[in-house]
Structures are given as structure tokens and as C-alpha cells.
């Protein structure tokens, strides 16, 4: 009886040992490396270490920025006055109104455009406009009125240096312009462009005050300095001067919606969006908010 039990136990032990040995060899086989060494992970780690952390863009500062076309300058700055003839500015398509101005030649028009005259601010209120862009704008506007000054561009356009060095050199041309109240010299575009930002807003119907959420993320001061300042800094055409609390009080009382509406749609001599249709509704509202905040 004992012998069969002993034999059975030995067989069980032997089977167990065989299974364990088989598993051991199987594990060794699976975890061993055969043939060429696998360097995939090492290569991936090397690529990761060599990945650039940034980039550098080389800029050739000797390259001059391309000047905008006359139409582009007119649309951005001049249209606010010359489209409707604001403050006597010659309308872009009024040939008769341009004729006495054309008599000055491109040189005379450039001097007035660079220095400003009467209610027309220098360079249309935008100091970033270059001489070449001013010339382009003048040629574009006079061309639309049926007068071709393109032949005078190279010979007749007065550089800024000449204009600044001898502002009195144009007494013969300037009086001819001043003799007519309607005279504006090619770039009065921004002189009234700022009026819509708030000037006539006092006439708008009262509405609920509601700050535009989108305007909060836009720099209203930047918009103001780009176009509104030319009128609101000095109070041109009855526009309230920035910071004049007494003048702004009745306008602020009408509410933000009324101010926004007047600025966006225009009123009386004030063109819609300050005469710059490229400005978004949020940008106009941001400019209004800035002026209101500075005038409370």
C-alpha cells in the first residue's frame, strides 16, 4: 500500500519539476535578445534631445516697407472728409471743386497735406503716413475728379524734409487755398473722423447703459489715438474735448447705447465709424468707452 503511494508522490513531484523547468526556459526564451541589438528606444531618445526648442527669423532691415496705394490711404484716412465734403473738403468726384487746387500743382498740394492748413491736420491726422503714401492719395483723389497729376509725381512731389525746412516757401500757393473756405489740401481725412466717436451722441435717444463685452478686450486708447484724437483733442466741429467733464456730462447721461449708435451710424457731419469703415463695431465701442472713462 505504501509503495504505490510513494510511486505516485514521486511521479507528481517529477511532473511538477518538469513544468517548472519548462516555464523557466520559456521565460528565458521570451526575454532574451536574438540577433541584432534593438536600438529603437535609444534613437527615439536621441531625436527628442536634439529637437529644436525654438526658431529664429532673420529680418533684413534694409528692406523698405512697401507704400500703400492711393486708394488704400484714401479708404483708411481721407474718406471721412472727402467722401462727403466735410468742413469744405473737396469731394473726391467734384471736378470743379478740385480745379483751383490743381492749379497749385502736386508740390503745393503736398505742402499743405504735410503741414496741414486751417482745420486740416498735418498728414490727415495720421503721422504714420509717409510722403510717398500722401502723394499716392493726392494723385488718386485728383484722378477720380478728372485731373491727372501722375506726370508730376517724380518731379513735383515735395519731400517732407523740404516742407519742414521751408514752410514759408509756399505763400503764393497757400493764400490761393485759403481764399476759398472749402480748401482742404488732399488729406483732411481724419480731422473730423473722430467726431462720431461721441460728439453728436448727446442728440441720440436715451437708452439703457450696456458695456459691450467684446470692447473690453480691445485697446480703446489705441483706436482713439489712431483716428479720434484729431477732433477730440481740440474740439473740432463741436466735438467734446477729451477730459472736459462739463461738456461730456450730458452725453454720458444718454447712456452707452446712444453713444455707440451715434458713433457706429454717424450723425450730422459725423461720418459712420469715424469715416473708417475698416473699424469693427467692437473697436468703435472700445474707443467710446475710453473717451467716456477719461471724461467722467
UniProtKB/TrEMBL annotation:
Q: Name one GO molecular function term.
A: heme binding
What domain of life does the native source organism fall in? Bacteria
Record's keyword terms, sorted = Electron transport, Heme, Iron, Metal-binding, Transport
Q: Which parts of the sequence belong to the Cytochrome c domain? A: 65-145, 215-295
- What Pfam families does the record tag this protein with? Cytochrome_CBB3
Q: Which Gene3D superfamilies match?
A: Cytochrome c-like domain
PANTHER family assigned: CYTOCHROME C5, PTHR40942
What is the name of the protein in this document?
Cytochrome c5 family protein
Amino acid at each position: 500500500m505504501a509503495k504505490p503511494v510513494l510511486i505516485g508522490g514521486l511521479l507528481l513531484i517529477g511532473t511538477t519539476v518538469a513544468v517548472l523547468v519548462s516555464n523557466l526556459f520559456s521565460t528565458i526564451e521570451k526575454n532574451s535578445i536574438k540577433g541584432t541589438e534593438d536600438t529603437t528606444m535609444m534613437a527615439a531618445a536621441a531625436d527628442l534631445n536634439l529637437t529644436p526648442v525654438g526658431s529664429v527669423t532673420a529680418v533684413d532691415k534694409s528692406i523698405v516697407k512697401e507704400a500703400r496705394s492711393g486708394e488704400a490711404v484714401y479708404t483708411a484716412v481721407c474718406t471721412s472728409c472727402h467722401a462727403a465734403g466735410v468742413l469744405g473738403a473737396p469731394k473726391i468726384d467734384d471736378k470743379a471743386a478740385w480745379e483751383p487746387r490743381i492749379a497749385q500743382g502736386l508740390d503745393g498740394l503736398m505742402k499743405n497735406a504735410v503741414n496741414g492748413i486751417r482745420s486740416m491736420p498735418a498728414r490727415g491726422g495720421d503721422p504714420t503716413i509717409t510722403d510717398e503714401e500722401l502723394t499716392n492719395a493726392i494723385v488718386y483723389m485728383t484722378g477720380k475728379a478728372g485731373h491727372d497729376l501722375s506726370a508730376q509725381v517724380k518731379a513735383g512731389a515735395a519731400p517732407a524734409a523740404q516742407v519742414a525746412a521751408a514752410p514759408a516757401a509756399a505763400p503764393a500757393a497757400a493764400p490761393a487755398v485759403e481764399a476759398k473756405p472749402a480748401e482742404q489740401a488732399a488729406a483732411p481725412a481724419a480731422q473730423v473722423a473722430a467726431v462720431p466717436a461721441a460728439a453728436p451722441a448727446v442728440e441720440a435717444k436715451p437708452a439703457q447703459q450696456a458695456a459691450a463685452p467684446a470692447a473690453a478686450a480691445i485697446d480703446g486708447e489705441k483706436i482713439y489715438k489712431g483716428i479720434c484724437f484729431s477732433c477730440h483733442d481740440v474740439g473740432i466741429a463741436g466735438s467734446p474735448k477729451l477730459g472736459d467733464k462739463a461738456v461730456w456730462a450730458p452725453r454720458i447721461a444718454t447712456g452707452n447705447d446712444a453713444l455707440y449708435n451715434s458713433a457706429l451710424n454717424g450723425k450730422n457731419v459725423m461720418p459712420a465709424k469715424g469715416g473708417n469703415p475698416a473699424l469693427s463695431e467692437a473697436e468703435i465701442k472700445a474707443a467710446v468707452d475710453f473717451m467716456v472713462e477719461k471724461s467722467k
